[in-house]
Write a structure and sequence with these properties.
3 strands, mainly alpha, three-stranded parallel β-sheet
Length: 203
């Protein structure tokens, strides 16, 4: 039997919390992870305008592909083998789909079209088979990104640098006050849940 669960939106937001918090808390050891992507979303990440996402645009797609690559990279940080699921839309062109398949081949990652909207359960069979293959071939053990008994600052820095790609972490006065309160309440051995991020830009 196989148990499948949805971890939430984005590997950085949903999956990291599922793996570092829920799996460690419940003693779960996942065997595979599915990264669901859409051609439309990747084109948007590549600079395409929202109103043009249904129009084939291979160049915008290629510019947006690094977003998918980062999610795949994050999955591998946990010793998990990712499977790419292309959530297919009617407007997706064969050439655009091939771009994702070529990426998967280059990275050595399994990929499948998820065409459940148009074909129902039959449209998800290819994806299910790819997931089974990964689970059966898996020889790695799931590894959390951090141990709960690490220092809070270490846990925050680990997530920020490895998952979000931060160069360094700076704690403001309120954050330092909160860190002291966590220490004083003897709560440092709890996991860290980063709910939001803020990117500051400078000239």
């Amino acid at each position: 039997d196989y148990t499948v669960t949805e971890a939430g939106f984005g590997f950085d937001l949903g999956a990291e919390k599922f793996l570092d918090i829920k799996c460690q808390s419940a003693g779960l050891s996942p065997k595979a992870v599915v990264i669901t992507t859409t051609i439309r979303a990747l084109k948007y990440h590549g600079g395409a305008d929202l109103s043009s996402l249904t129009i084939p645009n291979v160049e915008a797609l290629k510019k947006g592909v690094p977003n998918l690559e980062k999610h795949l990279e994050n999955a591998k940080l946990f010793n998990l083998t990712p499977v790419i699921a292309i959530n297919r839309f009617i407007s997706d062109s064969d050439e655009e789909i091939q771009v994702i398949k070529d990426l998967a081949e280059k990275l050595g990652v399994k990929v499948a079209l998820a065409d459940g909207w148009a074909r129902g359960g039959e449209g998800a069979l290819e994806l299910a088979q790819k997931v089974i293959e990964v689970v059966e071939e898996n020889t790695e053990n799931f590894t959390p990104l951090y141990e709960w008994d690490s220092a809070v600052i270490t846990k925050i820095e680990t997530i920020a640098k490895k998952i979000y790609g931060a160069d360094k972490i700076e704690f403001g006065a309120k954050a330092r006050k909160d860190l002291k309160k966590i220490h004083d309440l003897n709560l440092e051995n709890l996991p860290v849940c980063i709910a939001k991020t803020q990117k500051s830009l400078s000239d």
